[in-house]
Amino acid sequence: MSASISPLAPKSYPEMPEIAGARIGVAEAGIKYKGRKDLLVMVFDEGTAVAGVFTRSRCPSAPVEFCRRNLSGGKARILVVNSGNANAFTGRKGREATSLTAEAAARAAGAEPDTVFLASTGVIGEPLEAGRFTHLLGELAAGAEAGRWEEAARAIMTTDTYPKFVTASARLGDCTVTINGIAKGAGMIAPDMATMLSFVATDAPIAAPVLQDILAKATAKTFNAVTVDSDTSTSDTLMLFATGKAAERGAPWITDAKDSRLSPFKRALGKLLKTLALQVVRDGEGARKQVEITVTGAKSARSAKRVALSIANSPLVKTAVAGEDANWGRIVMAVGKAGEPADRDLLSIWFGDIRVAFEGERDPGYSEEQASDYMRRDEISIRVDLGLGRGSATVWTCDLTKEYVAINGDYRS
Amino acid sequence: MSASISPLAPKSYPEMPEIAGARIGVAEAGIKYKGRKDLLVMVFDEGTAVAGVFTRSRCPSAPVEFCRRNLSGGKARILVVNSGNANAFTGRKGREATSLTAEAAARAAGAEPDTVFLASTGVIGEPLEAGRFTHLLGELAAGAEAGRWEEAARAIMTTDTYPKFVTASARLGDCTVTINGIAKGAGMIAPDMATMLSFVATDAPIAAPVLQDILAKATAKTFNAVTVDSDTSTSDTLMLFATGKAAERGAPWITDAKDSRLSPFKRALGKLLKTLALQVVRDGEGARKQVEITVTGAKSARSAKRVALSIANSPLVKTAVAGEDANWGRIVMAVGKAGEPADRDLLSIWFGDIRVAFEGERDPGYSEEQASDYMRRDEISIRVDLGLGRGSATVWTCDLTKEYVAINGDYRS
């Protein structure tokens, strides 16, 4: 783990309310880290629906393959997450570890095996000794409590420098429902995937297929629009659990994704996922600045997102931001290499409100001093207008600093 | 420019022979750098054929657009290269600068305007004041000499820490012909392009269409198989000039790319381009290690190259190499994110001769100590077998160090 907390850490954290029907237990299993919690169990009441989005890696971890299989049932009773070892690229041993964990978890929750979900994060390629923690699951599940969300967020951290958790509420019919979410980063963060690890729970009564539909849509503009280093983990997992307990207080059961009563919930979920995604970016390994990149005027939204990601993933752009250098020439380079339609002589570029380039040339009113001044901020906004069409997209990233190299060159050794 | 010379710099340099029909002049024009040569002129005798490969950026520099237009004529009389300013994203002013330079160059060489070629390298987005050096071209061309290849290599450097030049010879019919080449790096180096800047000249009598054919083919496995940071320059240019002077010594005129007498020349050119490409990689900004990545067992050669580049461009792989960490889990990650066919449980991975992973698991004989020992070398070789088919590819890159970030965070400021 990194020694010092990111300067972009939240200034304050919310009080996390309880989610009726969801209980949390954490423990110190000593999987890799010493002197800290590295095991999380979430137990859900019967009737809990589940949705999930996972990495698009062609070499996913054993837990990701396990979750994909169980997701089709749409029901969840227990989630087990360990940090310190990703159980990825562990072959037959990896499948044995997920089987052992799942059996112990099902026993602990008194539930069917196909209602168990697992996630692992940490080093890749080393066998996970499930025996180190399977004996703890019974006690953890029995002692789980509803109000331990911050502890849950801390137990899943790896190189994160701060815990990531957030809460939201929304009207559903005549009732207010609650949504809680936790996440962990902090390297191997790039779209083309679900996300790192993030677990969200709500008491809203929403059927599993509807839950899956709204989660997938909300992911595209949140977790799949952030990138730290363009590297996609084998283990990225985002899961959403709906206990349905708010039905006891009069909330309506939602079984149709087009149900208009769902709109406030969708908005609240989208905002919550965006907050978590940005907390991940702001804790990108070595990050000192948050960078928002908006591309407008593209031929399509898809094209805009590809150009935006080409900028966000360019090492030369990211090091320039780290050096507080308004080097918009590198933005042009990144637009050019994206392979998407672009006409150099129609390009305009802004840093914040400062237009630095207009119609393919340096802006006549460009002031190096003004632009450099802007670059000293913690939050940098870059906008590129391609001048070709109406497609637009926004993505978020962080700068690339010497600390990123230090953290990732020394992670295992 | 960087303060210290890369530890991977060549231990020795070749004596550069003359290329009959090609003469070189260099000067200090003060475009950006002080106290060093930043202007190169190559003058070619009448009858010189030319070929070129350029960046695939959608936002190419003004000189790249200029060269593409003149290339169709197939004839070259003069090449002008400046360092310090790339004349890229300079709009109308950029085209004015190339026009002014081209007119002055044509006058200087007493040649037609469509036999002029231009290249610029350095900062993007700042207008190039051609007036700073156009008045020098007449004298430079008049005083150009055949034996100044090392000076030429030095005049085109930007953040390069050492000059890049190499020579080769080949049989052509009953005659020996010579090939000289120079290049410059050192950031924004990635395939999907021709290359940074590289200029190669030979006295072999080869027709322009044949020259273009063999240059394009040789590029795929040399300059287009290296990457420093995945960033593609707006200015990448590789040109090959053939003066044909060896015909006076009895070399045959080659007008057909399939002419079997051309085989030794093709091999020599390929080797020369690979040497230059590796010199560029070994001088990648902040580079401390050269990394060769070979992917075998892919569904196709194209698929193998995409997987190899995914590994070569992964910040997490590159920082692990910098940290001398045999972190093969990150290789798996990079295979997984490439989006190409891969089966986790068929993967095998080697560092040098050490097999670290076999059929999707850590190799039973894996020794952390042995692998760590290997990682201390200057030249690291990584091989991945996908176990799916017969496609293979090799690419080269360097490690990602704190110095890369330092160089690129401070380049302009």
TrEMBL record, chains A, B:
InterPro entries: Arg_biosynth_ArgJ, ArgJ-like_dom_sf, ArgJ_beta_C. The record marks 194-195 as: Cleavage. It comes from the Bacteria. Pathway: Amino-acid biosynthesis; L-arginine biosynthesis; N(2)-acetyl-L-ornithine from L-glutamate: step 1/4; Amino-acid biosynthesis; L-arginine biosynthesis; L-ornithine and N-acetyl-L-glutamate from L-glutamate and N(2)-acetyl-L-ornithine (cyclic): step 1/1. Pfam families: ArgJ. Substrate binds at residues 158, 184, 195, 285, 408, 413. Keywords: Acyltransferase, Amino-acid biosynthesis, Arginine biosynthesis, Autocatalytic cleavage, Cytoplasm, Multifunctional enzyme, Transferase. It is found in: Cytoplasm. The active site is at residue 195. GO terms for molecular function: L-glutamate N-acetyltransferase activity, acting on acetyl-L-ornithine as donor. SUPFAM superfamilies: DmpA/ArgJ-like (SSF56266). It catalyses: L-glutamate + acetyl-CoA = N-acetyl-L-glutamate + CoA + H(+); N(2)-acetyl-L-ornithine + L-glutamate = N-acetyl-L-glutamate + L-ornithine. Its EC number is 2.3.1.35, 2.3.1.1. The record marks 121-122 as: Involved in the stabilization of negative charge on the oxyanion by the formation of the oxyanion hole. Belongs to the ArgJ family. PANTHER family: ARGININE BIOSYNTHESIS BIFUNCTIONAL PROTEIN ARGJ, ARGININE BIOSYNTHESIS BIFUNCTIONAL PROTEIN ARGJ, MITOCHONDRIAL. Catalyzes two activities which are involved in the cyclic version of arginine biosynthesis: the synthesis of N-acetylglutamate from glutamate and acetyl-CoA as the acetyl donor, and of ornithine by transacetylation between N(2)-acetylornithine and glutamate. Heterotetramer of two alpha and two beta chains. HAMAP family: ArgJ. This is Arginine biosynthesis bifunctional protein ArgJ.
